[in-house]
Design a protein that fits this description.
With 245 residues, the protein is α/β, with parallel strands linked by helices. The chain has two domains: 78 residues, no CATH class; 150 residues, Metalloproteases ("zincins"), catalytic domain (Zincin-like). Helix content is 36%, strand content 25%. The chain contains seven helices and eleven strands. Strands 1-2-4-3 form a four-stranded mixed sheet. Strand 7 and strand 8 form a beta hairpin.
């Protein structure tokens, strides 16, 4: 590399910076995006941190200054995120939108099941949290596969694979190959919310965009779309509080 190129080469950005507000530090991840035209901040409930997106050619010092000027905003949004709640004995966890209490039953046979408004967990206490989460993932897969197949049949599209993940930034995603991925946390929401997300992702197999035509397809599949979107705006971040160790 020539000396001139070396002089003008930009140092790599740090992956994150720390912004302090009233003496409390907050982590802010940095992302350069080719399509970005300005600095934007957002808060992630799942990882309890903030992300600063910046134009590709923006100066790092300007990005840091922008984040520091918005330290109060970052602190306020992060402090609004509800306390994490693990799957421990006595924890109250929503299943299909209905609160259920986690009850440890060490003397019972089996793994995990629902009975009289409770999620009962057999076996050693050391495996309780994992067994509850595995149970919720199985329930999510069952409901999401049923809803996805139903909407795919109505729309006449082919789903090649359904994956259940713990996606921090989106509730679902679809590829042009017919593969659809969902967050298992949708099983915590009321059924009409899960149904809407299934309709949304299946509609992407017809329209890989968010055009007016796409939204017409979603609305035809799921007339209760607006209510589900409103529920997610109001309560979606809260679903990420469950399952902390």
């Amino acid at each position: 590399m020539s000396i001139i190129r070396r002089l003008f080469q930009r140092e790599p950005d740090p992956s994150a910076i720390t912004v302090s507000h009233e003496g409390v530090p907050y982590a802010v991840e940095l992302r350069r995006l080719p399509q970005a035209r300005r600095f934007t901040l957002r808060v992630r409930a799942a990882s309890r941190d903030a992300v600063l997106s910046m134009p590709a050619r923006a100066k790092l010092a300007d990005a840091v200054g922008f984040a520091e000027r918005h330290g109060a905003w970052i602190a306020t949004r992060l402090n609004r995120i509800p306390e994490a709640l693990g799957f421990a004995e006595g924890a109250v966890v929503p299943l299909r939108g209905v609160p259920h209490t986690v009850v440890h039953c060490p003397g019972r046979r089996g793994t995990c099941w629902v009975e009289d408004g409770a999620i009962l967990v057999a076996g050693d206490a050391a495996f309780l949290s994992r067994r509850v989460q595995d149970f919720l993932k199985r329930e999510a897969r069952k409901d999401l596969e049923a809803a996805t197949r139903l909407y795919a049949e109505r729309l006449g599209v082919k789903v090649t694979r359904i994956g259940i993940r713990d996606q921090a930034s989106r509730w679902g995603s679809a590829s042009s190959s017919g593969a659809i991925n969902y967050s298992w946390r949708l099983i915590l929401a009321p059924p009409f919310v899960l149904d809407y997300l299934a309709a949304h992702e299946v509609a992407h197999l017809r329209e890989m965009n968010h055009s007016p035509r796409f939204w017409r397809i979603v609305r035809d599949l799921c007339p209760g779309m607006e209510a589900a979107k409103a529920w997610l705006r109001a309560n979606g971040a809260n679903l990420h509080r469950y399952g902390a160790p």
